[in-house]
Amino acid sequence: MADYTLEVKDSFTVLGIGTELKSDYTDYAGINKEKADFWSAVKQDGRLDMLKAVATNDYIFVVNEAVNNKMMHYAGVMTEASLPEASREIQFPKGEYLVVKGEAETAEELSNMLTGIAFGQVLPEAKDFAYVGGPNASVEMGRRNGLVFGEMWIPVVKK
Fold first, then answer.
1. Residues β-bridged to residue 129
2. What backbone phi and psi angles, to 5 degrees, belong to 146?
3. Which residues of 26-47 are buried (b: 16+ CB within 10 A; e: fewer)?
4. What is the C-alpha separation between 14 and 89, in angstroms, rounded?
5. Count of beta carbons in the 10 Å neighbourhood of residue 140
6. Which domains does the chain have, with CATH numbers?
7. Residue 45: which residues within 8 A CB-CB, separation 6 or more?
8. Whole-angstrom Cα distance, residue 51 to residue 39?
9. How far is C-alpha 5 from the chain's CA centre?
10. Distance in angstroms (rounded) separating the CA atoms of residues 24 and 37
11. Residue pLDDT, tens place only, 111-153
12. How far is CA 73 from each of CA 21, 77, 90, 123, 151, rounded to the nearest angstrom?
């Protein structure tokens, strides 16, 4: 099984700019293309820089959340501020989180890798805890040795 930890986190809010993913949830290629197109757009049009300007730390959150039966995907930051361009304040509950750490060449590769490990390996094999929904996030924390490093945070409950 992949390396992971369980950590208790206080509740926190991520201010996000989002998009609805229209691909079927089993269409990984379609979902990944929609996510890549979205990230390209928010970087090019300056919305990601606007978020970074009001952030309380250097973390960039890649958030996935089901909202009103829609699969939503957000670029976000931790902040107390609000922006007219932001589409949602995403509330993460206080509690236990599955944390998977990793590093990759790009932020997109990091997010895809951490998501794959968490949902493809750790959660299916977990005996003591389960993901029961709610927002989850890949957190880009910085760069070292030419690689992007970060963590996947998924709220879980004891089985």
1. 158
2. 80, 5
3. eeeeebbebbeebbeebeeeeb
4. 6
5. 22
6. 5-158 (3.20.80.10)
7. none
8. 13
9. 17
10. 17
11. 999 999 999 999 999 999 999 888 999 999 999 999 999 999 9
12. 7, 13, 11, 20, 17
Phi, psi torsion values for 141, nearest 5 degrees? -105, -15
pLDDT per residue as tens digits for the range 18-53: 999 999 878 888 998 999 999 999 999 999 999 999
- The residue to which tokens 């890549």 are assigned: 36
Q: What is the pTM of this model?
A: 0.92
Q: What are phi and psi of 115, to 5 degrees?
A: -60, -45
Task: Give the total residue count for the chain.
Answer: 159
Amino acid letter, 24: D
CA distance 63 to 90: 9
The alpha helices in the chain, defined as continuous H runs, are: 28-44, 47-53, 107-117, 123-125
Tokens of 51: 């978020």
- Angle CA(114)–CA(119)–CA(122) in degrees, nearest 5? 90
